[in-house]
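Run log // design_07
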């Protein structure tokens, strides 16, 4: 039995050896795996940080009537653009026209009374000179003249107020922008300074507000000066990347003590109405300027739990695993804060062919970043 087992093992060993020699005749070693490598780029770089922001209109108006009355007409199409001065609502004008006429009549009566008192005061001054009237009666007539003049002024003010109220029955757009729906329709009562008629928001340009932590604020402050307004990149939900460009125009004057953040604001053109108030937006802002940053293609960086590493090819074309500390990503390149040196060759394509560190490879040198004129133009 033991003898048979011995012969069986010898036969299996021979078969295994024969199978190993079948693929590589004459004992040749396997060819090194072909991979693409690129040299670590060292160049000045502006680092960008991402934030979540919210779109807001520079001007927002809650339109309320200045006088009370029943809505007589709604003169706009809901949701459309309106210009400043366009008529939106008309309140029943009949009561206010009647008040205007009453104020005009009161002014006419006061003026007539003033004319009479002015004549009596003038005669009193003449009679006082010839001592045909007492000083007391003279003073009474002059006082009556002053009182009637004051009554004319009061009647004139009442007429002006009545005319203002009549003007306020025509509710006009105070700004140019997009109007919401009519919250009060024809035939309903609108109370002065209380009833919300509709809302208006300006549409071009728009604001994007976002919050930054204290550390990022310190770094970004160097980009914001009275003579310099840094550009920001903005993207909306459903959009790829950051296709829109805005300009940082405001930093709040204090940090929020509850959250430890400070508010930034970017202004962005909106001629086609892409941005609407209340939308969430993704924002990238420049936060750091490096004079000599090390950059590698993002495809070269691998992850092992919480560690990042790359494969470096040495002078003998043997791979080395190198742990790195990464920074922000700039387009298709990643900033390497430590772990690499300028000029070292890093595997960027063919990583799936490397099974272990120390494996020999056949490297082909390529560019770390691929030329893309459209991307370069968009990043300016």
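design_07 sequence
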């Amino acid at each position: 039995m033991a003898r048979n087992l011995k012969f069986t093992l010898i036969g299996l060993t021979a078969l295994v050896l024969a199978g190993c020699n079948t693929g590589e005749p004459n004992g040749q070693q396997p060819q090194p795996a072909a991979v693409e490598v690129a040299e670590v780029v060292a160049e000045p770089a502006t680092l960008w940080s991402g934030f979540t922001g919210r779109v807001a209109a520079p001007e927002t108006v809650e339109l309320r009537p200045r006088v009370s009355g029943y809505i007589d007409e709604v003169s706009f199409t809901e949701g459309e653009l309106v210009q400043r001065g366009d008529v939106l609502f008309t309140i029943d004008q009949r009561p206010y026209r009647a008040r205007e006429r009453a104020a005009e009549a009161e002014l006419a009566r006061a003026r007539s009374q003033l004319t009479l008192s002015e004549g009596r005061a003038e005669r009193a001054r003449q009679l006082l000179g010839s001592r045909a009237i007492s000083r007391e009666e003279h003073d009474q007539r002059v006082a009556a003249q002053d009182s009637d003049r004051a009554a004319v002024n009061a009647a004139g003010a009442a007429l002006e107020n009545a005319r203002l109220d009549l003007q306020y029955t025509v509710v006009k757009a105070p700004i140019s922008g997009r109007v919401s729906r009519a919250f009060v329709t024809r035939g309903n009562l609108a109370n002065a300074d209380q009833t919300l008629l509709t809302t208006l928001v300006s549409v071009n340009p728009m604001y994007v507000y976002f919050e930054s932590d204290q550390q990022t604020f310190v770094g970004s402050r160097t980009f914001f000066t009275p003579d310099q307004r840094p550009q920001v990149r903005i993207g909306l939900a459903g959009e790829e990347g950051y296709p829109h460009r805005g300009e940082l125009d405001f930093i709040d004057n204090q940090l929020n003590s509850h959250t430890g953040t400070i508010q930034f604001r970017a202004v962005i053109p909106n001629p086609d109405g892409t941005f609407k108030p209340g939308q969430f937006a993704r924002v990238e802002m420049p936060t750091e300027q490096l004079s000599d940053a090390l950059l590698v293609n993002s495809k070269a960086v691998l992850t092992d739990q919480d560690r990042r590493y790359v494969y470096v090819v040495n002078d003998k074309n043997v791979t080395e695993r190198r742990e790195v500390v990464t920074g922000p990503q700039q387009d298709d390149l990643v900033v390497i804060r430590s772990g690499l040196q300028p000029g070292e060759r890093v595997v960027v394509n063919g990583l799936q062919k490397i099974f272990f560190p120390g494996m020999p490879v056949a490297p082909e040198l390529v560019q770390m970043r691929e030329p893309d004129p459209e991307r370069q133009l968009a990043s300016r």
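The chain is about 30% helix and 35% strand.
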